């Protein structure tokens, strides 16, 4: 097994557009039924309101359909059977790198999200020990310590953007727990949370703006943010190599990884895996915590109910707002799913966000109802219907880490505070690269109600 990594992919948008147009001419006559005419309105809706557009197309065409977005025809496969086919039973037929995940290469490089085949299997195998149950349990101290530190900023009556607050907290946890980086030393050089947000904002721009190059463009700003983040990561890689320092973190495992010829990973590949896990390790936590407290603020009595269960609420949050809302793939061979044939060479997408909102699978799918995951109800959920972390051999490697982190943050916040939505706030969701609140999550902090006493309080002592 070689650690040389995959061949480079062009980041020239015009090369990619030309390739899409060639594939459109070749495969359009063979694609499943759908909406394949040129439509600026449909393209705009796909960028701004994909959930409702895809739900409408599902209602019109069934679980497998084609849709043209700008110049590119895409196939969507939705629902339990389609998800299981793509993620588990026929997963080997689909690659990530040639699909939409290739768009992340300019920022993340060749990390777990953008590689396939033997190189991916090797990298995942190397990193898996860092995410075993015992390792994650050992990191709880870091999670508690950083959450307590961040909560010092919160006071009853104070306004806070919970999305921003959680992003900074989750990034500090990821830097310490996953890579042994001191966030305070890093912050003296660069605000990593701000730079990540600036880099990721590139993907929320209209496509016309994304293809622009030159000073002042979104592309230029994204690369400027990337350079600042790279300086932190490459600096730590050099320091570890020079001093031979190792710990229990992912970076230490990667530094010691070798192939059969004794070759280790290059600094670039180390950087790409670190960047990918820093992105995935804080962005998904950030959005999940924000959406959880958004829904709790809309049902203020839920936390005080006798049947309240944080685990069920987290499961329901991930159903309604799965961070990795879309899974783009590339079909290597012809395949059939749900009775529909799809040709090889096609861009194929599943969407957990849409599959989690299908009215013929979920009762009242747009309502926040944690009880649907309670014992007795959970067992009735069809296989493949609930896929917030993907599935099969490429299930999110950091799933347990993220779940543990969210539990710590949410439970500590709920123990001390209740969070109300800022007056007049209206949720708008941005979709790329992960879903999150477009305008942040402005909330007002108030004190948590004291639990009801079950025994009389002792009488105060009276001074003689």
For the structure shown, list the relevant keywords.
464 residues; globular; 11% strand; Cytochrome p450; alpha+beta; 46% helix; six-stranded mixed sheet; three-stranded antiparallel sheet; 13 strands
Strand count: 13
The quaternary organization reads as single chain
| Major sheet | 6 strands, mixed
How are the strands of the largest sheet arranged? 1-2-3-9-6-4
Q: Total number of helical segments?
A: 18
In helices, the fraction of residues equals 40-55%
For this structure, the CATH topology is Cytochrome p450
- Gross geometry: globular
Instruction: Name the CATH class.
Output: Mainly Alpha
Going by CATH, what is the homologous superfamily? Answer: Cytochrome P450
Task: Using the 3D structure, state the CATH architecture.
Answer: Orthogonal Bundle
Distance between the termini: 82 Å
